[in-house]
Every structure is written in C-alpha cells, then in structure tokens.
User: Which sequence fits this backbone?
C-alpha cells in the first residue's frame, strides 16, 4: 500500500512538472529581484552606509525582527502561488487522464480507484506544500547569502548583522506548520476540485468556479444571508492558527498604520496556536467536506462509463 | 476443463439500449478467442464487463473472481490493451517501466527491457515522440513481461500500418503466447487474426450468434460455389446465406455434409470473414 502510494505520487510529479517547476521559477525570480534591488540601492551610496551603520547598532531583537520580516515577505510569494498551483493541479488530476484516454491504461494496473485518488489528494495536500517549503528555505538562504556578499563588500559585519540574527529554526518550523495547516484549512476546495476534475466533461475550471461565484449570490438574494459567502471567501483569509489573530491581521493590524509582526515578537512559532487550530469546528467541518468530495471523486472514477 | 472466463446470462443496458443481452459463454485456459462483431454490437461493453470496468447483471466470473468487485486482484492476473492511443503521452519509457515495476507484482523489468531492445523504442524517449507502431510495440513488451493469465486486446492494431500489424501479431504469438496463457481479442480485421485463433465468437445486437472452436468450423460450415442451374438444386438444402461472385452463386450451409454437395460445384470451408457476414446478414434477413 505505502510502496504503491509512493509510486503513484512519483507518477503525479512526472506528469505535473509544474509542482516543482513553478516554485523553482519563483525562487529564481525572487533571488534575482533581491540582487537587482541591491544593485539599484547601491546607487544611494551614502544612505546605504548610514543604514548599515544604523542596523549594526540595533539590538539583537530588532535585527531578528527585521530579518523575520524579510523572510516572511519572501515566503508569502510562494504561499500565494502554491495555492493557485494546488487548485489547478487538483482540477487537472482526474481530468487529464480522461481527456487523453490514458485512464484505460491506468485502470489496467493493479491499483484501486481509492489508491489512485488518494495519491492525488496527498499530492495536493502534502507533497505540494513540502516541495514549496524546500524552495522557500533555499530562497531564504540564497537571498541572505547574496545580501551577505553585498553587505560584506561594503564592509559590514554580516555575521553579526545577518547570520546570528536570523531565527532560522523558528522561522522555518513555523513556515512548515503554516503551510501544512493552510492545506488542511483549505482542503474542502481541494476536495471539490478533485470531484469536479473527476466528472467534468470539459472546462473543469469553469464548472468548479461557477457554484463558488453563484451560490453566495443566490443565497443573498433568496435568503438574505451570507453563510456561503463566509464559507467561501472569509475562509480563504481567516485561519484560526494564530494566537488571537487571523492570518491577515498578522501583517496588517487594524488602523491606518500597518504594523509588522516583527515588532510584536521575534518568534513566529510563539504566535502559532495549534490548540486553537485543531479545536476549531470550522477546520473539522472543512475536512469532512473534503472527505465527502474525495469519496465522491473515487465513486465517479469507479462507476463512470464513458462508452 | 478450466474456464478462465465464465459468463451466465450476462446483460448490460444503457438506458433503454441493451448492449449485452443475456449472454452465456466460457473461455477455456490456453485458448486464443476472437470476439468479432459489427460496430455497436456490444463487443467493447462485453470486454469492459470482463475487465471489471463496468458492472453488469447475471453471473460473470473471470479467473474465479467477480471482475467488478475484485478488480485489484483481477488486474494482477489480467492485462489489456484497449487501443494504441491509451499510453499516457507525457511519460518516458523508463518512467513507465519504473512505475509498473513498483505497482505490478508480476512484472519482470528485465524481460521488458530485453523485448524493448529488439525494437526501435529508445528508453529515454517520451511516448509522444514514438510512432503509433512503436507505442503498440512498447505496450506489448510491457504486457508480455507481465506474468498474467489472461490478456484482453480490444482493437489492438487500430490505425497501424500493415507491417506494424503483422509485427504485432507475430510478437504476440512468439513472445507472449505459451499455451498456458489465454487471449481474448476483438478486431475488425478478421482476416489477419484468423490463423492465430483457436476459437471464435460472433456477437451481434448484444447476443452471441456463434461460439465455436476453429477446428469445428469445417464440419459445421461449408460453402458451395455453383453455377446458376446447380444453385437451384442446392437451395433446397436451405443455405444460410447466398451471394454472387463473378456470375457464380456462392451458398453457405450450416450442418450440411460435404458429400451431399459434391457434384453441384466447388465445395470448400468458408473464411471467417465470409462466415461472419453470413451469420450477421443471414440473421437480419
């Protein structure tokens, strides 16, 4: 079973190369942008030197906070792209094999429909976040190294300024937890996409998007309530993972002035509240919805007869 | 006798259309059975039922298993080629070998590689870079390397040129078939497989209209080529089908002994293709 799953998941990576090509491209672009930025900023020679001097004199916490902000802003690009990738992957996962008729071949292999659909669900919820995580870590390292070379060339003590100040373990653990929690939190959308991908005769994207656009509208008109609107839209931005905060408030606190999390705490991990996350009924409801749609996708693949 | 496939009163409907209508038959171990029928006769539906891809009514047993409900076990002992287009186009030859090696307990990679080395299929090629004939060779190599008890082929040579078709059947007989394995095959090109079949089944409108071993055909069916005058006399023996070739009448008989026809004209065993036409058209008349 486990060996079979590994083979099936490896198969997904062969077919959907975007799973690692997309984060790779983002990693390259982000790294390139940071180097370009350094070159551009170098034009303001004097100001840069004063800045470096100022930064060197900051306290340990303030330096850590500044680097944390840098690391978060790098990571957030990946998180956004990861979600687009996950949804498009899920919409394609059971559709492509029917479109090119290779489903007949895949069904001639001794793997059950349950095992096959499970491998696609695991790819969406586990493999994509893990691969994204690896690229986030690599990007952090590359950008910090580039910065280090640049600052070093200007005579700064980069060991003091960057490397001892960067809270790597804390930041990376928190990022990994965040990515996996986000997967679970948004899993109903993955389940829905897999299901649509399994039955749509064409345009799975449109078919998946329509009810998400129309249901809240209908509900508003007919019942004047916003249950669906909240389930669909508020869910994507409000994850109960953080101590007393929802994830958008993490970067932008209320009021006109946005305040970076770094001011509040250097430790991202200390912001995470797994107890709150796992005791949230909304999480479990979402997982149930995901399981139902995935089961439906398995049944569609099993009982569908295209002849 | 050991039945590999055993069907009793099997039916399958799509809405009001009966694709398979109360069909019963057995396929014995070590046989190469041709399932022949016109388009829409129910061939593919019957194969799908045998492969567990679709549910059906009645009792159907393949290798002692219920194909629809025990599909995973079944797939360990059964292979099928649906038609040449179904290998995923994005996959590399080596990747597909890796994959099957990991999921198929009866696959021998070294055997597959040995068979592939005799073809023009390069291990690092993607399926989309291969010609149709090469894809079929590749698929057949994989299947030959799987120690399966039953091979189901649904129009395996559709769209292939004549050289590839000959090669395919040649390899099938030489590399795959060993007298222990069983093959069930459908095709439109009856003439090409006539010589390799041990049994034939004709299917029309969801019903089996002929189920016979090739050895029995000469005894059961006989064709008479007669002049117009002699044909008059021969018609009294109730031919199942009659056609005209170069001004002569060709009459086909079922269950009529050759001796009775001697003297009326040229007597011979009908080809499978002619028999097929006679059975299908004769039934319609």
Assistant:
């Amino acid at each position: 079973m486990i060996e079979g799953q590994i083979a099936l998941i490896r198969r997904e990576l062969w077919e959907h190369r975007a799973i690692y090509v997309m984060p790779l491209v983002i990693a390259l672009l982000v790294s390139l942008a940071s180097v370009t930025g350094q070159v551009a900023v170098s034009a303001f020679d004097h100001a840069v030197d004063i800045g470096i001097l100022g930064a060197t004199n900051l306290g340990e916490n303030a330096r850590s906070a500044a680097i944390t902000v840098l690391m978060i802003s790098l990571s957030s690009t990946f998180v956004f792209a990861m979600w687009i990738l996950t949804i498009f992957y899920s919409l394609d996962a059971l559709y492509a094999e029917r479109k090119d008729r290779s489903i007949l071949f895949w069904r001639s292999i001794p793997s059950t429909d349950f095992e096959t659909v499970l491998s696609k669900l695991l790819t969406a919820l586990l493999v994509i976040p893990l691969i994204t995580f690896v690229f986030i870590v690599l990007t952090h390292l590359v950008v910090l190294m580039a910065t280090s070379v640049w600052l070093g060339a200007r005579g700064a003590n980069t060991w003091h300024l960057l490397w001892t100040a960067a809270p790597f373990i804390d930041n990376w653990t928190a990022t990994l937890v965040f990515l996996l929690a986000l997967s679970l939190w948004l899993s109903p959308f993955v389940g829905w996409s897999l299901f649509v991908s399994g039955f749509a005769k064409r345009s799975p994207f449109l078919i998946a998007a329509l009810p998400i656009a129309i249901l809240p509208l209908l509900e508003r008109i007919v019942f004047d309530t916003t249950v669906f609107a909240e389930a669909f839209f508020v869910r994507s931005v409000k994850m109960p993972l953080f101590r007393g905060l929802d994830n958008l408030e993490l970067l932008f606190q209320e009021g006109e002035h946005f305040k970076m999390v770094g001011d509040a705490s250097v430790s991202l991990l200390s912001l995470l509240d797994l107890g709150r996350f796992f005791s949230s009924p909304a999480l479990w409801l979402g997982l149930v919805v995901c399981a139902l749609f995935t089961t439906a996708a398995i049944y569609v693949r099993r009982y569908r007869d295209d002849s | 006798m050991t039945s590999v496939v055993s069907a009793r009163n099997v039916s399958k409907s799509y809405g009001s259309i009966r694709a398979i209508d109360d069909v019963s038959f057995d396929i014995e171990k070590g046989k190469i059975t041709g399932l022949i029928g016109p388009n829409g006769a129910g061939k593919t539906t019957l194969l799908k039922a045998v492969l567990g891809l679709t549910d059906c009514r009645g009792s159907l047993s393949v290798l002692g298993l219920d194909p629809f409900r025990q599909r995973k076990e079944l797939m360990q002992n059964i292979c099928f080629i649906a038609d040449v287009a179904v290998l995923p186009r994005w996959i590399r030859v080596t990747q597909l070998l890796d994959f099957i090696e990991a999921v198929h307990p009866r696959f021998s990679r070294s055997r597959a590689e040995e068979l592939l080395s005799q073809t023009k299929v390069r291990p690092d090629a993607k399926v989309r870079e291969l010609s149709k004939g090469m894809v079929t060779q590749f698929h057949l190599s994989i299947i030959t390397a799987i120690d399966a008890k039953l091979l189901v082929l649904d129009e395996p040579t559709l769209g292939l040129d004549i050289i590839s078709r000959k090669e395919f059947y040649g390899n099938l007989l030489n590399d795959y078939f060993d007298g222990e394995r069983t093959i069930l095959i459908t095709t439109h090109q009856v003439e090409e497989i006539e010589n390799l079949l041990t049994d034939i089944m004709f299917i029309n409108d969801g019903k089996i209209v002929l189920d016979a071993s090739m050895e029995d055909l000469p005894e059961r069916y006989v064709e008479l080529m007669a002049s117009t005058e002699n044909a008059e006399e021969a018609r009294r023996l109730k031919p199942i089908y009659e056609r005209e070739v170069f001004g002569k009448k060709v009459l086909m008989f079922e269950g009529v002994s050759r001796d009775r026809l001697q003297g009326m004209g040229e007597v011979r065993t009908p080809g499978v293709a002619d028999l097929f036409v006679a059975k299908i058209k004769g039934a319609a008349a």
Notes: Confidence is low (pLDDT under 50) at residues 252-264 of chain A. Residues 113-153 of chain A form the longest helix (41 residues). Chain A has one domain: 2-303. The CA atoms of residues 181 and 241 of chain A lie 8 Å apart.
